[in-house]
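Weekly structure sync, notes
Attendees: PL (lead), two postdocs, one rotation student
Agenda item 3: pending single-chain targets
PL asked that the sequence for the first pending target be pasted directly into the notes so everyone works from the same version. It is reproduced below exactly as submitted, 109 residues in total.
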Amino acid sequence: MLWLALLTLLLALSAWSEPLDGRTLYRENCERCHGMSGAGDGPDGKNLIPPPRDFGQAFKYGDTQTAIVKTITNGIPRTGMAAYGKVLEEAEIKALASHVRVLRKQEKN
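Predicted structure, written out during the meeting:
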């Protein structure tokens, strides 16, 4: 019985320490506007003025990890880019920003 409790504890700890998946977070929170590849062509983005950012184009506040984290956290006023600072944890925002940077590199090429 003790081995079962230890196994349960080990499984819980391993699940807790898994790295965050920026790709999944992107799919859940961003893809509907920015599109699967980050081209700004998601189904909900068609109704936004101004349209969502195409990650292959210049970023309004810069494309560094820090700048993207700040944009995701605070949003962009007078656009459809919502603030996620109260929705996602800091680690989730950082993972999401890392994935946006990957998509940016793919879109620029």
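Discussion points:
- The CA atoms of residues 13 and 82 lie 33 Å apart.
- Residues 14-18 have pLDDT under 50 and may be disordered.
Action: rotation student to compare against the earlier draft before next sync.
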